[in-house]
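Hello K.,

You asked for the raw outputs rather than the summary table, so here they are, unedited. I folded two proteins back to back in the same session to keep the settings identical. This is the first:
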Amino acid sequence: MKKIIAIILTLAMVASFAGCSQNESNPDNTGDQSTTTPAATDDAGASTEEGEQTDEAGGEEEETTTEAPQALELDIDMDQYMADSARIYDAALGEFYETYQKANNASSVSEKFALMAIAEAKLLESGVFLPLNSQGGRFAISRVAPYTVTPCLWGNDSDRFHQYVVATELIKSDDRDEMKAHYAEVKGTGEYEAWAKQYLIDKGYTLKDEYNMAYATDPETWDVLNTSNAADSEVLVNTYDGLLEYDIDNKQAPALAESYTVSDDGLTYTFKIRQGVKWVDSQGREVADVTADDFVAGMQHALDAQGGLEYLVQGIIVGANEYIEGEITDFEQVGVKAEDDYTLVYTLEQPTSFFTTMLGYGIFAPMSRAYYTSQGGKFGEDFDSAADDYNYGTGPDNIAYCGPYLVTNATASSMIVFNANDSYWNKDNINIHKITWYYNDSSDVTKAYNDAVAGTIDGCSLNSSTIESAKSDGNFDLYSYVSSTNATTYCGFMNMNRQAYANYNDITKAVSGMTDDMKAATNQAMQNQNFRLAIAFSIDRTAHNAQITGDDAAPFSLVNSYIPGTFVSLDEDVTVDINGTATSFPAGTNYGAIVQAQIDADGYPIRAYDATLDEGVGSSTGYDGWYNVDNAKEYLAKAVEELKADGLEISADNPIHIEMPYASNIPQYVNRANVLKQSVEASLDGSVIVDLVACADGNEWNRATYWPGTGYLMNYTIQDNSGWGPDYGDPSTYLDTMLPDGAGFMTKTLGIY
């Protein structure tokens, strides 16, 4: 099971991803979404509750070398490593997994949600990671009208820009507040977009049909069906339409499917495909009609390529898992069929309440079969992306387009330009006709702000440096607002079985300073639950976050659970077992309330959810429910006794060393790393030493912490550069990332599988 990992260099990019793994290497964002773009810091396009995105990320810059890097070769017994992974998983996460399995056998959706909440409580109690922060929750300035992109928390629809309403001037805070209030009044009526345009005009703003933003990472492929990286999907989602699309009212509206029906047994979904839609090349020349078969071709190619999102359909669509595993080779046996040119049918293995919420991801994208084969593409056992004649997805000129934009310029580490597709079926109803992404490597922490003020980009979040600049030049009081958080959770991941002590792609980068004895002692300590919790309780997360957001905004984006506490709620009354007591929760209970009930029953001092926040609605965001020096000392004392019995002495004279890489070229990340070091060492009285490993840039940092595809290549003891956002509207989109045996995409961040 794989997901989209987006590295956001924490400072800010709030892209709306849904569900993907993300990283934090680019501090300049104010947009939504996980889900998922490598390297972001705090000024780049942060996303807001308003659904606006004003990105200006910074990213990692590819290194230029005259010699090929030295690849890491590990002397590792893979059989032993996998056996160790299973043992460590069972000790750390066995209770989580056992509880989660019960959820999958629930008799109703609400019971499933309640049991999933109990499973998450066990996951948080394990201490394998510490929730840190989300995207958004930052001061920002923007020319984008609030709520003119979908607020949907999953899929890639929030990365579509065609409905943005953008002014030539920064929008004043007071006007933004009035627009937000009006949206709350008319949400769901379809009236807001037209009202927003007229409101801005009446207020003296001039609207434009272009949108400019910053970005952090260039796409590695232009094949949306062969990737699980946000840096790819966030670009490519603007080049095609899916079956349905979440609109600004957060409703799924018809796109390439004009309508659909569901069979009475919930197993068959039949979509009527819009007629007259054209595929074009990057020059806008027609190459084919869009038909139902293009969705069949797209799905087969995705399952052939196995780019990382195939987990979404395994166990969901009939035959998909068997095809992926090679148990069947005839794609006709997979439950995706074109009954005729404009009738598409999906057959599911079992009723799946969230099936349509998954349609916003690239694995469900159409692909012109004829264009694909013209680029050397083949299907099934003949698929070979390394073939000499295979060109599909190698660049923007090697894909076909059926969406609102064509990519007319893509210059690495410089810019990506989108122009409106004249053949787009809905071209008369888009607001933005040109989009320009400008590369920002985040090394200059003031660049995003300066570019936003100058109008080079249309918005940014404010970081600890630029908040003061905005205050001094009057822009803070006039234009700033607090962007809302989204559903992405960045974490401090604990490597319980570290094997790599230099970067996998170049053994001269991010090199460990540990001795063999230190390595063994650290791994032993990290496999102790109380030791991990001691570290978790010792980190001053507010101070850690403040290095990116500034002191005033630091609490806004703090998160205290893996899944947002209000992500789902119960539709009906439910009674579940909590530590032997039948416990009832009424309809309307938020997911987080049940997580907290189990944590309280287990006696852990974690405040993952606070029912009193948000005017009584409840929230898991905006406060620090973990940091507590007394708790850190208490859990360390427990760990010291347990580890002493196993022959490991821990004290200030014999400390455990943990290593944490960071991007040394970005001042905010330097400061953040030092805050974590100081906090842990002070809280634990020097019994734990944090050794910071300086990475030259975002690339080197990402290769230590984010890009490795397996646990044994993860080069850290603890890292704060990865996270997860939802792929669809069900808690399993998060919890599945922690499944055993390599099925969970994020278990690799724990050094296993």
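The second followed immediately with the same parameters:
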Amino acid sequence: MKLRTAILLIAGIVAVNIPLQWLTIRQDLTSDKRYTLSEATKTQFKDLNGTLKIDLMLDGELNSGFTRLRKATDEIIRELSLYADIKTQILTQEQAASLGLSPTIIHERTQDGRTAQTTIYPYARLKYNGKSMIVNLLQNNRGLSGEENLNRSIEGLEYTLAEAIHTIKQTEVARVAFLEGHGETEEQNVYDLEQALSRYFQIDRGVLGNQAGILDQYKCVIIADPQQPFSETDKYILDQYVMQGGRILWLLNGVRFSGDMLQTEGVTPIIALDLNLTDMLFRYGVRINPALVQDLQCLPIPVDVSQDPSQPNFQPLPWTYAPLLLTNENSPITRGVMQVMSTMVSCVEWVGGEDGLSKDILLATSTASMLTPTPAEVDLSDLTINRERFQYAYIPVATSLEGIFPSVFAHRMPPEGIINPGDQLKTGKKTRQIVVAGGNLAKNDWEQGQPLPVGFDRYTETQFGNRDFLVNSVLWLTDDAGLISLRQKTVALRLLNDKIAHDQRKKIQIISLLTPLVLIALPGAVVGLGRRKKYKK
């Protein structure tokens, strides 16, 4: 009878385990759901028809932080392997260097007090259907510590890989247009931004003309720092483009000033800049105020403080008209983006009340700001700062808008001269726009015939977050797959107390070693004592 019961029990176990070997049961028990992939990511990888090859370059003698990043990368690739055929291999540092990649140099102090230098290549190369793309796994925000940057990098792994595979598997490249014809920033001065966007889009430039549907082929339109008014024909074409679901990145100044006059004469008048867009933007739920923003958190400029013109003495003085803008950590567009450099910017203001639009502030000033209304004058000879006047906080400079926008031509006839106007739409499809009250945020300088990165300040030799902000803005505007929302994923950072960890190192090691052994031995001892007591009777 006992034999028969044992045989039945073994047969039951085998019968249950045979189907279980083809069944995968996974449960993410972490509080921050760090091992849970979004549906958008799963969809991207389920749609792959062939093998995805991933070459990992983050290898070698890694410290604890980069070991976490490498481990997290391996873990997310294992998760992704449930939805696609993925093969990985490790590239050596020599192979990574042969690809022309810039390494990350880590300087650390060892336990014996010496300084150690480690070269790391935090990259991955994805290859699919004859195409390849290299992605940087490491985020490097100047305002964060090393541990915080590594944690942000771990948070962004899913988005980095999902966005890369979304781009690499595209059979048709989406098109983005830079508008011309209104004194917009010249192509050479947005060269760096165009190069950054060309990784994802085909970049075109051109004037609107009078063809009603001329923009329909473009996923997004960028209007960078226009200086001349828009005609009613231009506005109609743009408005109907938005009604059709088009997306626009507006980079507009609220005031007119002369940078050349300021540089040569040290003074420039500032007046309101009328682009004939006020009524249009108002209908879309936003207004750009004709005032200049000043902020105590700003860039310095070199000023000659010498009394002798023959012996100039340039000293850095704060230039409050060049505020360093704060980014919104709760928006997928600006999360993890460094401060954004700006010069002569205005402020944006929401209007329209309960218009059903989703609005979010993307860039704002610090807690010590002020507004200079127009008309006024900016004079380099007067750089004195009255701190009592800087009483405003978080003046908004950029905002995102999402929803169904009403047409500015809802109760108006199309302008004369429009070719093929088609059916005039009074309300549109759900879409997105971003309005930035500063045209020069996208402008790059040149040095010795080479373009500098957008957001690079030559005087302080500091790279700010302009490029990341602008690229993320266009990606958000054109994101139909919902991938950009993955940038909001958070992983709790739990740091050790470095002083305690160093001073009590031996004690912590002993506790860490003995605790698992005690936890294993304790149940065995309890069972042993119980059996001994049972059979002793």
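The CA atoms of residues 298 and 323 lie 4 Å apart.

Happy to rerun anything if the numbers look odd on your end.

Regards,
P.
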